[in-house]
Amino acid sequence: MQLPAADPAIVSRRAAIVGALREIVPDGVIAEDTALRAYESDGLSALRQMPLVVVLPRTTEQVARILSYCRRDGVKIVPRGAGTSLSGGSTPLGDAVTLAMGRFNRILEVDLDNRCAVVQPGVTNLAISRAVESDGFYYAPDPSSQIACSIGGNVAENAGGVHCLKYGLTANNLLGLEMVLMTGEVIRLGGRHLDAPGYDLMGVVTGSEGLLGVITEVTVRLLRRPETARAVLMGFEDPGQAAACVAAIIAAGIIPAGLEMMDGPAIRAAEDFVHAGYPTEAGALLICELDGPAVEVDALIARVESLARANGATTLRTSTTEAERLLFWAGRKAAFPAAGRISPDYLCMDGTIPRRRLPEVLARMQDLSRLHGLRVANVFHAGDGNLHPLILFDANRPGELERAEAFGADILRLCVEVGGVLTGEHGVGLEKRDLMPVMFGEEDIRQQQRIKCAFDPDHLLNPGKVYPTLHRCAELGRLHVSGGHLPFPDLPRF
């Protein structure tokens, strides 16, 4: 993983850029080295870079003025939410303004009649559910970082969570967006209605990782809390049995609210950290949550328990209280920080595979572990095949970070090889940028970049992310070359 080299011409104009930003946001510009240190990385902390300057706008009008100024003066921008990205999507650049949206932290409206809420992008994921829980509603996508991650970042990465199997990813729970383009123009996509006519531009923007515009308002769908929710905890001797049980549950036509899997190292780390009552002797653990009317949940639990026994479950527990259900999930949601008990550092990967290939991929991952000489703990959304291998390493040992990166790249290549994809919810960012050709052909990538050019022809928004080779928009047929003179001849290429 490499950061793009800073443009000396932009760096030399730093004082003028800081001054211009202070005219737009007098109380929201950070330019001192010690204060900038807080923004030097996102959740992918293996990559660190001090930003040129950080600006924290309060209003959409300020965001529009900032983008308009940056486009006019050729200054790059890295949009940033809560900074919890695990793919380097909001890693700062040394020649770019970091546009931090943390001040956009208000819930603007809760409309229970239309089952939606209008929120600013800096509102945390969990805050939406907490704002409506007393009325019996909630917001369905629930990433493990939901206590900290922002809804704007969720839109940028199309975040999921443990309940995305039944209720969908962020894209399935959005109704509308307000976004500022690089020109400073403010546009609205969707609304409070179920569907919008014409091209699905909201679908294009969701998961675009800050490459197309800056989101300043989000309208999300709210759901009624189910009457009953119970979780079944299943322990197995080995991951192959657990994977077979996952396939059996889905094949039986059961769509759980959540279906999560952990292997032995992850089970023991999470249990030591949370004390959720996990069977530490198990080689694999499944958590299956069923929700809906009580009579339906009871019937589904009986079927899941029967399937678990048929596939060799050695431990079987079903939650009897809400506190017990939440405790089951607490261990799973704390699995990433719990890995810190067994390793100084880890890389969290994010590939998705067909469910039927789970046993094969887990076995081959162990082969890769031996090849690279590094341990791996597996925590993932088994129901939709979204893997989150945690590669354990020590950055203080020379060469281990590089070996961890090579191990992670091999895992992602394996995911594509078996018919999967490079990312399920964490995005491409810097982490998977150079692996894009593994999944996409040259023309596929060019077509994606043509969309980028339509929104940001100067490539000023989050440059150096997602695409391994940055084509000039003229090469992609988006800009007119007149008299042999290419527009934007100083456009950097990475």
UniProtKB/TrEMBL annotation:
Keywords: FAD, Flavoprotein, Oxidoreductase. Its EC number is 1.1.3.15. SUPFAM superfamilies: FAD-binding/transporter-associated domain-like, FAD-linked oxidases, C-terminal domain. Its cofactor is FAD. Pfam families: FAD-oxidase_C, FAD_binding_4. Residues 47-225 form the FAD-binding PCMH-type domain. It is an enzyme of class 1 (oxidoreductase). GO terms for molecular function: (S)-2-hydroxy-acid oxidase activity; FAD binding. The keyword Flavoprotein applies. PANTHER family: GLYCOLATE OXIDASE SUBUNIT GLCD. This is Glycolate oxidase.
